Structures are given as C-alpha cells and as structure tokens.
Amino acid sequence: MSYVDGLVPAKIAVLGAGSWGTTFAKILGDAAQGTERKIILWGRRAEVVEQINDHHRNPRYLSSTELPLNITASTDISAVLKDAELVIVAVPAQTLREQLRGWAPHLAKDAVVVSLMKGLELHTDQRMSQVIMEELGLTPNRVVVVSGPNLAMEIARQEPTASVVACADEETAGWVAAVCTPPYFRPYTNADVVGVEIGGILKNVIALCVGICEGRKMGDNTKASVITRGLAETTRLALALGGKAETLSGLAGLGDLVATCSSSLSRNHTAGRMLGEGLTLDEVNNRMTQTAEGIKSARAVKDLGAKVGVEMPLTNAVVAVLEGKLSVDDLGPLLLARELKSEGD
Ligand SMILES: NC(=O)c1ccc[n+]([C@@H]2O[C@H](COP(=O)([O-])OP(=O)(O)OC[C@H]3O[C@@H](n4cnc5c(N)ncnc54)[C@H](O)[C@@H]3O)[C@@H](O)[C@H]2O)c1
Ligand SMILES: O=P(O)(O)OC[C@H](O)CO
Question: Could you tell me the superkingdom of the organism this chain comes from (predicted)?
Fold first, then answer.
C-alpha cells in the first residue's frame, strides 16, 4: 500500500462540492503545486461541476475564491473514484450512509478514506468514521478524520489555520497530512480518533447554545460560561468513549469550540442566534443554505450520552429547545438551575 511505502497519491478524490469539500480541494490543490498530482471533486449538481471545470470557481459556496488549475470536477462517481488512492468525504452527516452504499462498488482497492464531517448519525449514534468503516468494510488504519478550527471561508481566503489529522495508524495520518500542507494550512497528526471526532461534533451543539444566548442578548459572561462548561461536557463524553483529555484541550476540542462559538461565519452559531431571536426551527431551516450539523446531531449526542451514562446538561437543554419542549427564554435560567458541585466533576 502506498501509505506504507511513503509514496504520495497521484490522484485524490473529494466527494462533496459544498463549502468545506471545495475549500479542502483547494488546500490539496495548492499543496500539490509543482507535482503531477490531480484533485477531482465529485458534485451532485451539474451546474456546480461546470463552473469548477470552466471557470475554476464554485460561486454557489465560495463566490470570491479562484480554485487551482489542478482541480477538476465531475458528477460521475465511478470516474471520480477510479484509481483514487485517497478519498476525502464532505457531505452532510445524516446522508453519508446512504451515499456510501452507492459509492462502495467504485472505491479503489486499498484506498484510504478521510472524513471531514462533524456530525453524529441519528438512531445509531455512530461517528462518521464508524459509519465509513461499517459501510465500506475498512479497517481503522484506512480511515482518517480531519477536524479543527476550520471555518471554510477563512481558509479559502488563505488565512493561516491549523488542524488535526487523526488515524489509529500514525503512518497513515502522516501520509494524509503530507498532502494537505499548503503554506496557509498546518495539520498536526493525532492517534485519538474518538477525541478528535467528539470535539468536532459537540462544538456544533455548544455553538447552537451560545448562539441562542446571543440571540437573547446575553453577554460575554454567559457565552464564556457556556463555552467552558461545554468543553467540560465534551471532555466527559470523549473520555467515556475512550478519547483523551489532551485532545479536547487541543485544536480539535478547545480550538474548534472557540472558533465556532465566536464566529458569525459558523452556520451552527448563526442557527442558534436565529432561534434565540425567536425564529422557529422550521424558519431557521428554511433560511439555512448550508449544513448546520448540530441541529440534527444534538439528539444523537443526547442519546449517546445517556447510553454511556454521561451527564450532558447543555446538550439536553439544546435538544429541548430544538424539540419545542423548552422556550429560548427558559434556557438561560435552566443552564444554572442544577445541583451545586465541584468544577472538576
Ligand atoms: N464549512 C465549513 O466551514 C466546515 C468546516 C469543517 C467541517 N465541516 C463539515 O463538513 C461537512 C460538510 O459541510 P459543508 O460545509 O461542506 O456543507 P455544505 O452545506 O456547504 O455542502 C454540503 C454538500 O453536500 C451536498 N449534499 C447536500 N445534501 C445532500 C444529500 N442529501 N445527498 C448528497 N449530497 C448532499 C451538497 O450538494 C453540498 O455539495 C459537515 O459535516 C460539516 O460539519 C464544514
Ligand atoms: O459553520 P459550522 O458551524 O459548521 O462550523 C464550521 C467549522 O466546523 C468550524 O471549525
């Protein structure tokens, strides 16, 4: 396998031509300058694919970004996956399983699959790496997760950003990190896949909560309290699932939580703010043109917490708002209406 002998892939497939898939293709394309490496994006919409091939742009998601010339696009999954040794996946989490079933017959033998997604599957409570392994029959050494404080728009503008490339096999993580290192993007490797994925999933739920507080005109004390207790909640869940506390204090935990909870570019933060301002969930969903994973994942996170016996007060409160069982006015008082305990518990 090429990742064992250290060779870089000649062709990389990126599945999903939305905001993050397109930006990640740019990262790969910029990192491949001066090499023969080709990046090919799979998109569902013919008009998006045409814009990328004819004008090197994806105006639907990244209106002012020019894409490198080594990126092409196609709606034909078999052509995209043919001979691709590295396959990057960036589609909405709740659609992944169904799509993998259609992609599986076209996957190249020995391909390594990378998840860019930050969602938890409803009903199974599985992380995206678990869904990938199950549906494609892959072993952990061929499944990688990339996660961190990575707002696509800022990276598309080439603003310096760090991230985490996680895989049970550090050699595979290093192989992937080596092909996504343009001057403006620095990946660190990590073997703690659970911690990295849980950090990315939970920060979306916490950002919804911060957004709701912001929409109710609460200030920075409240936001800092939610972020900090959110990190404690995230860490508890990750530890219960076998993740490491250090991962949650790194880029994929604290780093992503801070970026998402403070940025107006975040879709989860924005969705939360709209809920706080009094819009119904249907109204928020109608206004969102891009994926806010926390809206659906929150319920799965609540279920997972209950399954492994971890207290998840912030997640539970967000789910109650999303399910119409708690008004946004009652969220603030509820966040504090708990039994007194030590900060470390
Ligand atoms: N945008 C970011 O800044 C960012 C950064 C890091 C991680 N992520 C994660 O990446 C994943 C993808 O997010 P995004 O920002 O690219 O979302 P997006 O909404 O911008 O794009 C989603 C893509 O998936 C396609 N898609 C939507 N519904 C589909 C369906 N039912 N079947 C097949 N394809 C479908 C869309 O056509 C689009 O190409 C999410 O899990 C998100 O949390 C996003
Ligand atoms: O826009 P969001 O809320 O999906 O956040 C994007 C990235 O995950 C931030 O790291």
Answer: Bacteria
Task: Give the strand order in the sheet containing 143-147.
Answer: 71-74, 38-42, 11-15, 86-89, 112-115, 143-147, 161-166, 185-190
User: For the segment 187-212, what is each residue's pLDDT rounded down to a tens digit?
Assistant: 999 999 999 999 999 999 999 999 99
Which burial class, exposed, middle or buried, applies to 1 when counting CB atoms under 10 A from its CB (0-12, 13-18, 19+)?
Answer: middle
Quote the distance between the C-alpha of residue 74 and its chain's center. 23
CATH superfamily of 2-191: NAD(P)-binding Rossmann-like Domain (3.40.50.720)
Q: For residues 24 and 39, what is the distance between their CA atoms, to the nearest angstrom?
A: 10
For the stretch 53-99, pLDDT in tens is 999 999 999 989 999 999 999 999 999 999 999 999 999 999 999 99
What is the distance in A from the centroid of ligand 2 to the CA of 61? 14
Cβ of residue 270 lying under 6 Å from some atom of ligand 2: no
Measured distance CA(221)–CA(124) in Å, rounded: 36
What average pLDDT does the segment 15-40 reach? 98
Detail the residues annotated as belonging to a binding site for sn-glycerol 3-phosphate: 118, 148, 203, 256, 266-268
Region of residue 72 (left: phi > 0; alpha: psi -120 to 50; beta: else): beta
- Check if 190 has its Cβ closer than 6 Å to any atom of ligand 2: no
Catalytic positions, written as ranges: 203
Q: Which ligand is nearest to the CA of 146?
A: 1
**Cα 17 to ligand 1 centroid, rounded to whole Å:** 8
Q: What is the ipTM of this complex?
A: 0.98
**194-336 placed in CATH 3.40.50.11540:** no
- Range(s) within the chain of domains with CATH label 1.10.1040.10: 194-336
